[in-house]
Amino acid sequence: MSLLERIVVDSDVVHGRPRVRGTRVRVSDVLSLLGTGATAEEILEDYPYLTVDDIRACLQYAAAQADHAVLIAS
């Protein structure tokens, strides 16, 4: 399984926001924790059902979302 396959979107779960497969943990939750300085180890202590690859998948997903063309109307 590629890392991005760990991230899923289902309109019936967490209001259709991207989340880690098999959990209700949103990508944005993991990114917020990392952004406030939490380490992967701290996240895994708080969410023992996640893996290091889940955290990496969240980062990879965010990077892919941020790397899109921006069209500016002139």
Automatic annotation (TrEMBL):
Organism of this sequence: Isoptericola hypogeus
Full protein name: DUF433 domain-containing protein
SUPFAM superfamilies: Homeodomain-like (SSF46689)
Pfam families for the chain: DUF433 (PF04255)
Record InterPro entries: DUF433 (IPR007367), Homeodomain-like_sf (IPR009057), WH-like_DNA-bd_sf (IPR036388)
Gene3D superfamilies, per database record: Winged helix-like DNA-binding domain superfamily/Winged helix DNA-binding domain
